Amino acid sequence: LNSIEWNWWTGCSYGVYTDGLVYLDRNDRTDLTTSKRLWCLGNFSKFIEEGAVRMACSSGVENLRCAAFRNPDGTTAIVYLNDTNVALTTQLPALAENGYSVYVTDETHDLEKVQNLSATLEVPSMSVVTVVFEAAEAKDSGIC
């Protein structure tokens, strides 16, 4: 999570080339399959805008990594990464009381918005979860 830049040299590939984001069928050009890698990458590329500033962040939970960014539009995005075989739970910052959205990529979700009605966030096993906080509340808050 300390990367300066991500770029993908193989966006589309035939077969199951392990670095592909989208898999193509040579015999049926309408048959496209997306990889989990595409959706995991989306947790960063969809919610972290060009010009975003990285903020210090800690989940407070062993093996639950996170990275937080303040976007130019005032929203704040925290991306959590759980690469363990068990679900992990963390507390959302106080900022969550004023509005946020949660997006999950795991075995059964592909960057899907999910309902989370508490200040506790469960990060499923082998998942990437992004929490996006509303702009008005994100301003000048120490969130992590």
Report on the structure:
With 144 residues, the protein is mainly beta. The chain is built from two helices and eleven strands. A six-stranded antiparallel β-sheet has the order 4-5-6-11-8-9. Strands 1-2-3 form a three-stranded mixed β-sheet. Strand 4 (53-55) and strand 5 (64-70) form a beta hairpin. The protein is globular and about 50 Å long. The two termini are 16 Å apart.
Key features of this structure:
single chain, 144 residues, mainly beta, 3-stranded mixed sheet, 10% helix, globular
Short description:
The protein is mostly beta strands.
Give the biggest sheet: 6 strands, antiparallel
- Percentage of residues in helical conformation: under 10%
What are the low-pLDDT stretches, counting only 5+ consecutive residues below 50? 137-141
Strand content: 35-45%
Order of helices and strands: EEEHEEEEEEEEH
Overall, the morphology is: globular
Arithmetic mean pLDDT: 84
Tally of extended strands?
11
The structure class reads mainly beta
Strand order of the largest sheet: 4-5-6-11-8-9
User: End-to-end distance, in Å?
Assistant: 16 Å
Rounded to the nearest angstrom, the radius of gyration is 16 Å
Query: Helical segment tally?
Result: 2
